[in-house]
């Protein structure tokens, strides 16, 4: 199959929502640069994606390390038409109990890497007069989140950041979309040491990452500013908009506290 020169870059592209997004891009014949920490998982994902006839470049980086993010920018030489900032992590527990360095790493990953990659690749998109950016946020960005205070705050940044730059560049030919899923059946909660949380126990309430990815992909391609994935999550965000932040925080405290409390 003769390849085109459409390229998308996806961070966190080997699992969860990121991998499902990669499948959608591959189906539409976008060549891919996928970024994650684990080279074995990158190789496995690349092999799977190449069955659609596209090119796949794998780059192993720890995006919580600023130098790795900057190195990624320099290593990517293909023209990136679409940037997907999907890589992100959280940590569960009370703020006073959590490890500070882990929280700083989460800020570097969820915020720092998003800012660096967006600035680098969007400048090139603006020069070409076309491009798309999908920043994977969360409904957490609209909900102050006790037991995940730092994670929720980083997602509030992602939403505000995406909305502001969209306005700045509205006449540039570059679009910005924020994808806002709720609890999704991925490895996020395991990595966040959150399996004892009430919100994780209800597996039936969790979204399928393939459904979330489809919502985000369609919103990206039609140039929407943001998409809350899932009716339940839309209702939760709508209700939160009508409540004082203190009341929202209390509700989230009860939803996210450990099951034994």
UniProtKB/TrEMBL annotation:
InterPro entries: NAD(P)-bd_dom_sf, SDR_fam. GO terms for molecular function: oxidoreductase activity. Keywords: Oxidoreductase. Pfam families: adh_short. SUPFAM superfamilies: NAD(P)-binding Rossmann-fold domains. The keyword Repeat does not apply. Its EC number is 1.-.-.-. The keyword Kinase does not apply. PANTHER family: DEHYDROGENASE/REDUCTASE SDR FAMILY MEMBER 7B, SHORT-CHAIN DEHYDROGENASE-RELATED. Belongs to the short-chain dehydrogenases/reductases (SDR) family. This is SDR family NAD(P)-dependent oxidoreductase. It comes from Mucilaginibacter antarcticus.
């Amino acid at each position: 199959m003769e390849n085109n020169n459409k390229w998308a870059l996806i961070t966190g592209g080997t699992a969860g929502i990121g991998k499902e997004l990669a499948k959608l891009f591959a189906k539409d014949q976008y060549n891919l640069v996928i970024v994650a920490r684990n080279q074995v998982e990158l190789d496995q994902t690349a092999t799977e994606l190449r069955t659609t006839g596209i090119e796949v470049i794998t780059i192993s980086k720890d995006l919580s390390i600023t130098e790795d993010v900057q190195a990624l920018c320099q290593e990517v030489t293909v023209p990136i038409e679409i940037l997907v900032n999907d890589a992100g992590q959280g940590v569960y527990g009370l703020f006073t109990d959590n490890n500070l360095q882990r929280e700083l790493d989460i800020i570097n990953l969820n915020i720092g890497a998003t800012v660096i990659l967006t600035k680098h690749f969007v400048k090139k998109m603006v020069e070409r007069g076309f491009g798309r950016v999908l920043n994977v946020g969360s409904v957490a960005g609209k909900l102050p989140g006790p037991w995940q205070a730092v994670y929720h705050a980083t997602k509030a940044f992602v939403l505000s950041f995406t909305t502001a730059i969209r306005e700045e560049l509205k006449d540039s030919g570059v679009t910005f979309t924020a994808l806002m899923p709720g609890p999704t059946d991925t490895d996020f909660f395991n990595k966040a040491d959150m399996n004892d949380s009430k919100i994780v126990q209800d597996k039936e309430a969790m979204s399928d990452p393939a459904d979330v990815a489809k919502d985000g992909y369609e919103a990206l391609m039609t140039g929407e500013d943001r998409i809350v994935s899932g009716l339940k999550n839309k209702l939760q965000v709508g209700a939160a908009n009508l409540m004082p932040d203190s009341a929202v925080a209390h509700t989230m405290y009860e939803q996210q506290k450990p099951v034994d409390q």
